[in-house]
Design brief:
It comes from Methylococcus capsulatus. The protein is an all-alpha fold. The chain is built from six helices and no strands. The mean pLDDT is about 95.
Length: about 210
Amino acid sequence: MNFDHADLSLKEIFQDHLSCCVECGQALERLFADLDAAETHIGLIRQLEEKGDALMRKAYDALETAPYSELVLLIQQFARHLDDILDGLNDTARVIDIFTPRRAETAALDLLAISQGMVRRLSAEMDHYPENPPAGIKQCREELKVSETDADLVYHEWRKSQRRYSTLSLLSESDWTEILGILEKTTDSCYHAALVLERITKYRLRQAS
């Protein structure tokens, strides 16, 4: 397999997929701001998730003829983490569609903002693929780790606040616990994608030395 050609194809696919994630996050922001007219936003998010699935199929097709190697496995793992990001955003919309909350919790907006910042940082790093500078991807991974930690804190502080002050009904608290849990896991997927991208970079450097 000519990996130079495959890398160019994969770079475009992954950049397009991350663009879908950004668009999906923006649609989710509009959904949170307009829960009374959720159907339009949820429909757009569903379309973006389907587009992302098609892109991932293209990525796997690009790797299909590659011989078994650590690099191929790492790239497949990276693709799965990107897919998990978009799935998490779509799952958030699906749960909102089921639960029909009347207003968005501030913590959900905070978690969405964190995840969007992480996606944009990943997208910027993908501009350098497949020749990501080691220092650059290390900085990306460290920045995303800070963001992931911030997301954990937002989620757990919200849970603690609900236990202490019970500002929501038990049903609403359960609904938002699920929604926030999905968003928090989405930030985990962003961080794990950065980890794998760093492993891909290190593998390439070892092979080149």
